[in-house]
Amino acid sequence: MWKLIVFTLIIPGSMAIFHTSTRQPEISASLHSDVLLPCVFSLANSKNELKYVIITWKANGVIIAQYMNGEVKASSRAEMLGSELQMGNASLILRNVSLNDKGDYECEVYEVPNLGTVKVSLKVTAAPQVFLNPKVIGFDRPVALECHAVGFYPPGNISVEWWSGSRPLPNQIPLQLYQIQDGSYRTVRHHIYTSFGMVVNDTLSCRVTHESQGGKPIVVPLQVCKPVMTVSPQTVTRGGKHNIVCKLEGCFSNAVISWINKNKSIKQYTCMSTWDCVNIITGEKKMDEFDELFCKAEVEGFDMNITQPVKIINQGGDRCPWITILVLFGVLLIISFCRVCLGVLQKVLMPRVLCITQI
Ligand SMILES: *[C@@H]1O[C@H](CO)[C@@H](O)[C@H](O)[C@H]1NC(C)=O
Ligand SMILES: *[C@@H]1O[C@H](CO)[C@@H](O)[C@H](O)[C@H]1NC(C)=O
Ligand SMILES: *[C@@H]1O[C@H](CO)[C@@H](O)[C@H](O)[C@H]1NC(C)=O
Ligand SMILES: *[C@@H]1O[C@H](CO)[C@@H](O)[C@H](O)[C@H]1NC(C)=O
Ligand SMILES: *[C@@H]1O[C@H](CO)[C@@H](O)[C@H](O)[C@H]1NC(C)=O
Ligand SMILES: *[C@@H]1O[C@H](CO)[C@@H](O)[C@H](O)[C@H]1NC(C)=O
User: Fold this and answer.
1) Tell me: the pLDDT tens digits for 267-312?
2) How many domains does the chain have?
3) How far separated are the first and last CA of the chain, in Å rounded?
4) How confident is the model at residue 318 (pLDDT cuts 50, 70, 90)?
5) Domain span at residue 255?
6) Is 339's pLDDT higher than 80?
7) Which of 114, 141, 267, 347 is within CB 3.0–4.6 Å of 259 for a Cys-Cys bond?
């Protein structure tokens, strides 16, 4: 009888069921996120609690977290909550997942003499960052476009296409993939834009699909536009004092507007994240100082500078009186000359008239 009791105490769980369970065999996590790798177990002898239990998490065969003698030791980004272990939950929290974290994970729950193992495979995906170069283009000028997709993982199954309105543009050759330092990939899709054959309001966009996005494309529209520069007044008088306004409107975000006299910049203004930009020369500046005045805008994303000249004319008040005086002088000259003429005519014609009346 005594013998039997000792036996049951020493090997209490030999007849009991010991199991571990997991919900998904494959877990997918996005780069830099935190992921929970599930591992749930129930002990053969719940009375002993975790006294004789060793729990080990291995990543590709290397131990990254372990519970032993009531203590959890884990690598810096791995975590097993002691409070959850008491309830048979040995799930591992892996923080800030990197591409190197992908692979096979094993959760081993060892309670002498039983060993239960849960296998989980971790898949890491990274979403591409999509950007266009240039971001903004002028409608009427041909330009080479690039659509970049950077930092995606895994490399297979990416599609980068230029779309016009609701249809993809033809002639899209296979993409070249390049690996970057962190192990992810980048690629670029080229397209030569010409306004020829384009419907004005058909938006050109780049569409990127990748498995990290769950079938939803990332769509980045290209801004096709025409910034317009106006200068007012367009004509100024030399010597006068004028406020001249140079205004750039249209779609752009960053621009530098400069007033240039000859080839020297006299006033520069930078606009950031705006849709119109104004640079004014105030009336304190005498127009005498200017020879060839024009306003120039350098627009970010545009590979051309937009310019508008200001016409500088000599002041009207200087020239007009002289013309008037000259004209008046001329008229007076003609009148006085005619008077002399008339006098001569009279003298010549008078005797003849007298003769006629005598006859
Ligand atoms: C297990 O513990 C983790 C935290 O470590 C928790 O997020 C998760 O919900 C728990 N799972 C169960 C089944 O209790
Ligand atoms: C995550 O890890 C990367 C390096 O892999 C690091 O640059 C980044 O700062 C980390 N993020 C957080 C929130 O710790
Ligand atoms: C590409 O993705 C589709 C669904 O997004 C998937 O069914 C297919 O297996 C993937 N192909 C490769 C080679 O990964
Ligand atoms: C293009 O769109 C603008 C406003 O968004 C509209 O005024 C114009 O009529 C449209 N042009 C064509 C050809 O549809
Ligand atoms: C400006 O033009 C003059 C001649 O008109 C030239 O000598 C000078 O080098 C130019 N300066 C700049 C900065 O282009
Ligand atoms: C626009 O002007 C800037 C500064 O004067 C100059 O560096 C740049 O080459 C010009 N760009 C073009 C396309 O003419």
Assistant:
1) 888 888 776 778 777 766 666 677 888 999 988 767 678 899 988 8
2) 3
3) 191
4) low
5) 228-313
6) no
7) 267
Closest CA to 258 of 248, 250, 272, 243: 248
In a domain, 10, yes or no: no
Same domain membership, residue 196 and residue 135: yes
Would residue 278 count as lying in a domain?
yes
Q: pLDDT tens across 40-84, in order? A: 888 776 666 788 899 999 999 999 999 999 899 999 999 999 889
Average pLDDT, the chain: 81
Q: Which two tokens stand for residue 332?
A: 């007076």
pTM score: 0.62
Return the CATH number at 309: 2.60.40.1930
Residue 140: give its domain's CATH number: 2.60.40.10
Close Cβ partners of 31 (under 8 Å, ≥ 6 residues apart):
97, 98, 99, 124, 125, 126, 127, 151, 153, 184
User: Which residue owns the Cα nearest ligand 1 atom 11?
Assistant: 89
Which residue's alpha carbon is at the smallest distance from atom 12 of ligand 4?
201
Ligand 1 in reach of 209 Cβ (< 6 A): no
Distance 345 CA to ligand 3 centre (A): 114
Task: Among 264, 265, 304, 305, name the best residue to mutate to test ligand 6's pocket (greatest count of ligand atoms within 8 A of Cβ).
Answer: 305
